[in-house]
Amino acid sequence: MNSKRLVRTLVILLVLGLNIGCDQLSKTIVRDKMEIYDRITYLHRHITFQRVENTGAFLSFGDSLSGPLRMILLNILPLLAVLFGLGYILAKPNINRVKLLGIILIIGGGFGNIYDRIVRGSVTDFMHINFVIFQTGVFNVADMSIMAGMFIVLIHSFLNRKAEADVNKLDENPIK
Q1: How far apart are CA 147 and CA 142, in angstroms?
Q2: Beta strands at 39-42 and 134-135: parallel, antiparallel or unpaired
Q3: Global pTM value
Q4: Tens digits of residue pLDDT in 83-141
Q5: Catalytic site residues?
Q6: How far, in Å, CA of 106 to CA of 93, rounded?
Q7: Residue 86, phi then psi, degrees to nearest 5
Q8: Model confidence over 45-72: pLDDT tens digits?
Q9: What are phi and psi of 37, to 5 degrees?
Q10: How far apart are CA 60 and CA 52, in angstroms?
Q11: How, if at all, do strands 47-54 and 123-131 pair?
């Protein structure tokens, strides 16, 4: 492995580790300092910290599943997806840095929540935002990481498509 690829791999693993570490540290603090359903509000109840143990996935999807189906849908398939994503970014050296950051955030958030689900049996969620027309479910740092990563990847893809379309227009109608 050449030194450039080694440095790239180490940077990816460092960013991934920091991402997972921030998520796990925040959840540990919440589990240590708050009882389940304890509530702390800020900004006239627009921002709430409330510890919730989510036994399902996103928005409690699958929390009523049991047995092998639960294990497959909530643990095995997501774990395979994040491992595939990690393998993809490590094996493909020419991914744009912005897109790479987005993918790392998605993978890190996924690992954080999967770890909780496998080790603890539930995912600790603790943040809620309510600005009248905009309201979230209860979420955690891993969820923010996944959403930020998705936003980065989607915006990057949109801007690249727009740039490619502009280049194609120039190719079709060159200035003479």
Answers
A1: 9
A2: unpaired
A3: 0.86
A4: 999 999 999 999 999 999 999 999 999 999 999 999 998 999 999 999 888 899 899 99
A5: 125, 143
A6: 18
A7: -65, -45
A8: 899 999 999 887 766 666 666 777 777 8
A9: 70, 5
A10: 11
A11: antiparallel
Which tokens in the block code for residue 160? 């690249």
In contact, 126 and 50? CB cutoff 8 Å: yes
Q: At residue 123, what is the residue type?
A: V
* Neighbouring C-beta atoms of residue 25, cutoff 10 Å: 11
Tokens of 37: 């359903």
Contact partners, residue 52, CB within 8 Å, separation at least 6: 36, 37, 124, 125, 126, 138
Provide the residue range defining the domain that includes 72: 3-172
DSSP codes of every residue in 104-169: HHHHHHHHHHHHHHHHHSSEEEEEEEEETTEE--SB-HHHHHHHHHHHHHHHHHHHHHHHHHHHHH
Domain count of the fold of the chain: 1
